[in-house]
Amino acid sequence: MESDLTVSRDADRVTVTIDRPEKSNALTGETFVAIGDAFRELADDPPSVVTVRGAGGTFSSGVDMADVPEWGEMKPLDVRDLLEPVHDALRAIEELDAPVVAALEGHVLGGGLELALSCDIRIAAENAVFGLPESGMGLAMDLGGAQKLPGFVGEGLTKYLVMTSETIDAQRAYDEGLVEELHADDEFDGALADLEDSLAEKPTYIHGLAKRQIHSARPLNLDEAMAQALHHAIAAYNEPETQRRVAEFFEDS
């Protein structure tokens, strides 16, 4: 199966690239599985820093919708079995004992934004646009965005993004605490290299310990809430209105 993911290692640094620019780096189930496999493999010999980015100047337009209509023909538990490996991939990112940087350009939408939230540090170009378009199609959040985003931007902005499907620009994302660094488009790659240099010069094990300490302060029910999100996603899709909106999406695309 094609995963549309490339992993390159230069000495002690790794770049994981979503390589599907013709589809704005839309994420398939196979892509998420490949991400999980890559990070679990890196766990055996953690690099000094890992950067996750998208090819062609955009991070990701979100989860590829192509398989979503098939959910209506599947048993709920079978849909759950499709989604759980995606959660496993996001956990593999968070559990890696090395810093993971999300390099954000262009579209950072839906599942792409949720992927970025699983990384440790987010650096954005001024052309980045952030949003959660799921509600416009009647879909429920299912990859942890609703659970994790309040810790970054608060409950109010989280509800705004989830409920309205509106996007925010990179400046607001930076001002609200969604990204840690913001740079002009023509300075982005240089700033990213500087951030990687800064992280790489510290002992990797120190970053691993820091991640464990910081994650220990998360709500105790985070994993439980994310598991519940899978069932919410399945329930939402079984609503006729959701199926109508998804069908219209494909008619218009």
Please explain how this structure is put together.
There is one protein chain. This protein has 253 residues and is of the alpha/beta class. The chain has one domain (5-186, 220-252): 2-enoyl-CoA Hydratase, Chain A, domain 1 (Alpha-Beta Complex). The protein is 48% helix and 16% strand. The protein has ten helices and nine strands. The strands form two sheets. The protein has a six-stranded mixed beta sheet, with helices on both faces. It is globular, with a radius of gyration of 17 Å. The model has no long low-confidence stretch (mean pLDDT 92).
In short:
The chain is of the alpha/beta class and 253 residues long.
List keywords for this structure.
single chain, 253 residues, alpha/beta, 2-enoyl-CoA Hydratase, Chain A, domain 1, 6-stranded mixed β-sheet, 10 helices
Question: What's the architecture in CATH terms?
Answer: Alpha-Beta Complex
What is the gyration radius calculated from CA atoms? 17 Å
- Total count of strands: 9
| Terminal Cα span | 25 Å
The CATH class, by name, is Alpha Beta
How would you describe the shape? Answer: globular
Give the tally of structural domains. Answer: 1
Mind describing the biggest β-sheet?
6 strands, mixed
Average pLDDT value?
92
What's the CATH topology label?
A: 2-enoyl-CoA Hydratase, Chain A, domain 1
How many H/I helical runs? 10
- Residue fraction in strands: 15-25%
